[in-house]
Amino acid sequence: MSPPAAVDVDSGSASATGPLTVDAIPALRAKSAKIPLGVAPATHSDLFKSPYCYTKPHAKRWDDVFSIEAKARKTSTLKGAAQFLKNPGLISLGGGLPSPEYFPFDELSVKVPTPPAFSPEESHKSGSVITAKKGDSRDGTSCYDLEVALNYGQATGSPQLLRFVTEHTELIHNPPYSDWQCCLTPGSTFAWDAVLRILCNRGDYIMMEEYTFSSAKETALPLGLKVAGVKMDEQGLLPEALDEILTNWDEATRGGAKPRVLYTIPTGQNPTGATQGVERRKAVYKVAQKHDIIIVEDEPYYFLQMQPYTGADGQPVPPPANHADFIRSLVPSYLSLDVDGRVCRIESFSKVLTPGSRAGWLVAPEQFIERYSRHSETTAQNPSGISQILLFKLLDEHWGHSGYLDWLINLRMQYTGRRDALVIACEKHLPGEIASWVAPDAGMFHWIGIDWQKHPGLAAGKTRDQIEEQIFLSAVDSKVLVSRGSWFTASESSGEGKMFFRATFAAASSENIEEAIRRLGEALRVQFGL
Amino acid sequence: MSPPAAVDVDSGSASATGPLTVDAIPALRAKSAKIPLGVAPATHSDLFKSPYCYTKPHAKRWDDVFSIEAKARKTSTLKGAAQFLKNPGLISLGGGLPSPEYFPFDELSVKVPTPPAFSPEESHKSGSVITAKKGDSRDGTSCYDLEVALNYGQATGSPQLLRFVTEHTELIHNPPYSDWQCCLTPGSTFAWDAVLRILCNRGDYIMMEEYTFSSAKETALPLGLKVAGVKMDEQGLLPEALDEILTNWDEATRGGAKPRVLYTIPTGQNPTGATQGVERRKAVYKVAQKHDIIIVEDEPYYFLQMQPYTGADGQPVPPPANHADFIRSLVPSYLSLDVDGRVCRIESFSKVLTPGSRAGWLVAPEQFIERYSRHSETTAQNPSGISQILLFKLLDEHWGHSGYLDWLINLRMQYTGRRDALVIACEKHLPGEIASWVAPDAGMFHWIGIDWQKHPGLAAGKTRDQIEEQIFLSAVDSKVLVSRGSWFTASESSGEGKMFFRATFAAASSENIEEAIRRLGEALRVQFGL
């Protein structure tokens, strides 16, 4: 990787000497390479990073962690021929791209909120209608037109949306090494499957939090992978537990080599709601360095970090005063601590804009992103062009970075209200004798511990699993659905002796949340004979 | 599989005794189960198939072809809990679905052509604007609203779009066994990768046409698969060659077990443009039965079947008189001949509507579709909901099946014009002494054979590959890009002694097509000293 020609690393200009800010982006764009307007152009994040990035050291090499499959991938034969397309005057009868005159979509419009009028009601009444047409780039209306969005694209995604997420990544995380890159993904579920196929061979172990997103585990198991669960506390993953597993790894007992990949949800973890503090992250990173581990941070809930919980009668904490304040309030990501280039960050719009777009992105060292792009070329190719142009129109052309940060601050306050409603309902309605919790700092989930050893079923010879099922079904009978903690265990030894239920405050209304928790409390009282 | 309650198989009503027609669809819908209006509902094609389907025999079992990975897939833990959601009055704090009030898209509109005014100009001037809003299903405006489309979905896709493709599949292909199903895919490239991972283990062989879509081969190779190329003629795949390979398969010499999977592009094959006639397909199917082979038919060009080529001075053949005529004019698919249920059909909107939607579908026996859905759940999940709702609005609500068939007929005539322009240009400008071709019946590609043994480089000791490269670069120097035939060889022994170039008539204008072929003719004359 080398900086693009347009970036003058040695200029000593302001932008080369400090982290990127929202205000500096117009100047950065003015100096950067122009967005290519044609169909499926080659692109990469280096075109859009600030000169400051290039003052940093390079990432470590990942050669020794790539899977057999990833090592075998070659550049697409047909994409290789694209080099000739730039010859002036050339007529191509080469590629099999359909002609845009046969795309039966002449114009695409979407009504979206304008900051700060973000509520559904305001959006509906006074939202702005933004439009993409087929000829927008020909007449200079936009650098991304419908003709291009409706055609094939590159695995990296369109340069238009890639530029936005690259700048956003630099604004928020400012990675401490130089050759990081972004690549769009058709959603985090796809990205995690791809990461596993790129980094692991059948029979390998990976490490996950002892309670983890069950789908993430179910992605790994059919690939022939095994999971070692890492113990957690209220801040999630315990670095000492991670170190202990790796230091004492015995290949023969485990039936597999010492793992190289750690999967973690550091912020608002699913299912526990735990958020790793900055010191915790630094300690985990140190263990990763000691054992040369790749950290995969799956971060859908990063921007669902909330205001501190101040209790039913407490004074609410005022929202962040401005963008800089907001960014400072966010717990540092692993990416932002990644001096070695050993972090692969899976980013998502699902919890902050819409899951239906099936568009997210990855951030990782160039060497990994290159392998991911090869993988993507022969699988999902790229996220829907229709999703991409709508996200671009909203994020880049309508909101800009500033408006997007406003949206995220708004979301923070909304989720704070929901979290508060749930926690206050728990304080009011759950029996404190057997139920305990910590108010979550981020995410959508509240993790309720149950002192199941006080359950009368125990004396009657029932197992923990049977009691958990009985409580779960009794809650369902009381017309409230929560998730059983055992659904989320990373391995058979995970969560021994403990019992939890997961409740989410993402979807139900405040009134429904309180009613649901009231019903849960009732069910618990009946179950425990309280 | 059993027919849904709403379908009365034994009624002896007209719809149970004959193939589905466009006109019968409203009555079928009236009898079928209602489209569920909620977020991410479970769905499957059986809800939408006509009673006639259930009068047919069941598909063969596929148990012995599933890969280690496919066999290991289990039902998602969290999706299992969804069964409780239908309990009346239940409040769910279970799933992690975000609340639609935080999706910043209030309304989505698209301007599309209304049959028969399909041209870009007509579409632009007088197209209809169709709109999806957040509350459409609440106020009865539509069975598919933006709130649902913007949220998570099931791997099968939304029931709204799945219904349309299921009906379309029955209309066009009328599979001769009962338990076929459709499942949406995020594009054919993804689907082919998934099919391979579901049917093959590392070290397995698959069979492909000796010249094949290079990306399809490049999808297979990194998975540790090997390719046996099957010889072709002007109608594509040769059944005798297929039978010979399988009959004489020697595991030791080949270094792999006898293959079970045949990949074919039967219509407008990429790169050769060849279309298998119906007798050819029947013969290939018989060989597949003899050796118990799964046929994967990749059919992006099926609806790019064109009018017969009648030459520069010939009388054009009039377009199909009506829908029935059009459907009859189409060469039968493998799916339509599939009495055993051994065909997996990969369907695409990329060449007939837009590649940018990254949405297509699969048709295969229920047993396979079930494994595919499990695969999809932990990879791409489902195509973009934004793409899905736009396709639904256009295909189902605006055009209906009738309007879509009109669109496809229009496309047939458009491509006929393009193909004619290319073939007539070849007749006019290419040196007949060394160049030969057959006018393609379908697709986007024209395959030009070159009698390279007449090239002066041969006497000078050059190899076929070197001469191919020299001709290619000389064409590039003359400002025309075509693709080298050797880029598409399935295996090293493919296409021995022959030389081809592929030209596409999909993208360039008629004038540019003629100019490009003129340049190619010039380059060939210089190369061969004519």
UniProtKB/TrEMBL annotation, chains A, B:
Annotated ranges, domain Aminotransferase class I/classII large: 151-520
EC number annotated for this UniProt entry: 2.6.1.57
Cofactor(s) the record lists: pyridoxal 5'-phosphate
Coiled-coil stretches: none
Record InterPro entries: Aminotransferase_I/II_large, Class-I_PLP-dep_aminotransf, PyrdxlP-dep_Trfase, PyrdxlP-dep_Trfase_major
Location in or out of the cell: Cytoplasm
Family matches, as SUPFAM superfamilies: PLP-dependent transferases (SSF53383)
Gene Ontology molecular function terms on file: 2-aminoadipate transaminase activity; aromatic-amino-acid transaminase activity; pyridoxal phosphate binding
Keyword line: Aminotransferase, Cytoplasm, Pyridoxal phosphate, Transferase
Pfam families with a match to the protein in the record: Aminotran_1_2
Any Gene Ontology CC annotation: cytoplasm
Keyword Transferase belongs to the record: yes
Name of the featured protein: aromatic-amino-acid transaminase
